[in-house]
Task: inverse folding
């Protein structure tokens, strides 16, 4: 053997590393669970750095690279970075692109932790922040200042599915010389590709629909501008928010079925929204596919079609805690879980989670009551899902 003249202690470290297959072409993408890659001599070191080859795991790794390429393709963007979480992607991008004195305009309908990150971290960095209702484009335009650097929104908001007009928001941002950053987590690139509508930076929490199996925490940032990519890459290295190889491998495997899963989840949401809308006890259904939704026309412009918009919906039941509990206990399929986007349908109660700390008056303005329930549709057969909800809603009769 190659290492037979060495001691046992040494050979333990080298045997096995040169097996046949290290240069093969395996059918499934292997896990490169290594913190570094070997280089030959100093010429090879120079060449690796010059070509941005694989060096240390926090900098670059093949599993992150494979996942990044897949997401760049889906989002129709040039370059993607993979992060340890959606929040890692959001905060690292803020740190990379915003400076003290810059002005930041955020949609007032925003994910709870994003709201907290802006209020706690951006303000700490002396970034000026304004929250504006993005359904009112006039107000967005009026909020722009000479130092406005970024506009930030989700495609549809949590939990009432308020749609953002990405095309017009991109125009407003670009006229001001600012970037539009869009969170596509609730919608995914299967429903909408924000970069095609003018967004400069697109975030996905891969933890949700993209991985879909509720077993990994990760995020991605996609951009078209390679200079932006380099700046965010450098700060990701310093903040240490790169995803681990194992996480990237897990999400890459989960995403092999993203087309089958997410399209079905969106179809299920449209079907369930329609069935709930027709139910006499349901006070309101929030989903852009519903024809009576005031943003139905805007949704028709933003999304691929009427049945592929988002797998997320919410609906209002009467504000009766005992009846709501009876409803939840009667459901056989949908379970309560503080996440979304998984293959099984899950519920969440905004008043017990995302909107717990929002004052009642503000909550009412957002259309959130005690009876509001959020649903993340899974890949069950749509008819089974509808039957489950209809049966459980009988507790109100
Ligand atoms: C979950 C979520 C995030 C944060 O993602 P993590 O992967 O949990 O850090 C950001 N935005 C939205 C809309 C989310 O649902």
Result:
């Amino acid at each position: 053997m190659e290492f037979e003249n060495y001691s046992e202690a040494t050979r333990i470290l080298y045997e096995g590393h040169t097996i046949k297959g290290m240069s093969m072409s395996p059918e499934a993408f292997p896990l490169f669970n290594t913190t570094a890659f070997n280089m030959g001599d100093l010429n090879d070191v120079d060449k690796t750095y010059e070509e941005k080859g694989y060096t240390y795991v926090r900098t670059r790794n093949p599993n992150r690279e494979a996942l990044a390429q897949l997401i760049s393709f889906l989002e129709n963007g040039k370059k993607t970075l993979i992060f340890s979480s959606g929040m890692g992607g959001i905060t690292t991008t803020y740190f990379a692109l915003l400076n003290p004195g810059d002005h930041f305009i955020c949609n007032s309908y925003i994910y709870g932790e994003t709201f907290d990150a802006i209020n706690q971290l951006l303000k700490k960095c002396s970034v000026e922040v304004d929250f504006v209702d993005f359904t009112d484009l006039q107000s967005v335009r009026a909020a722009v200042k000479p130092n406005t650097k970024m506009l930030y929104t989700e495609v549809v908001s949590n939990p009432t599915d308020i749609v953002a007009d990405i095309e017009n928001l991109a125009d407003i941002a670009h006229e001001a010389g600012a970037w539009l950053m869009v969170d596509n987590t609730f919608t995914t690139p299967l429903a909408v590709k924000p970069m095609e509508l003018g967004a400069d930076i697109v975030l996905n929490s891969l933890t949700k629909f993209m991985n879909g199996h509720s077993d990994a925490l990760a995020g991605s940032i996609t951009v078209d501008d390679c200079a932006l990519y380099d700046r965010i890459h450098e700060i990701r290295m310093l903040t240490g928010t790169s995803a681990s190889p194992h996480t990237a491998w897990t999400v890459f495997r989960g995403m092999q079925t993203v087309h089958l899963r997410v399209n079905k989840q969106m179809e299920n949401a449209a079907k369930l929204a329609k069935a709930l809308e027709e139910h006499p006890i349901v006070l309101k259904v929030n989903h852009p596919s519903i024809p009576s939704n005031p943003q139905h026309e805007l949704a028709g412009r933003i999304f691929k079609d009427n049945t592929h918009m988002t797998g997320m919906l919410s609906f209002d039941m009467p504000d009766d805690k005992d009846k709501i509990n009876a409803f939840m206990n009667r459901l056989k399929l949908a379970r309560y879980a503080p996440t979304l986007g998984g293959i099984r349908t899950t519920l969440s109660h905004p008043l017990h989670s995302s909107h717990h700390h929002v004052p009642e008056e503000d909550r009412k303005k957002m259309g959130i009551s005690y009876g509001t329930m959020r649903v993340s549709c899974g890949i069950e057969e749509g008819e089974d899902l509808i039957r489950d909800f209809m049966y459980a809603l009988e507790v109100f009769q």
Residues 85-87, 111, 114, 154, 158, 183, 185-186, 205, 207-208, 217, 219 surround pyridoxal-5'-phosphate (CB under 6 Å).
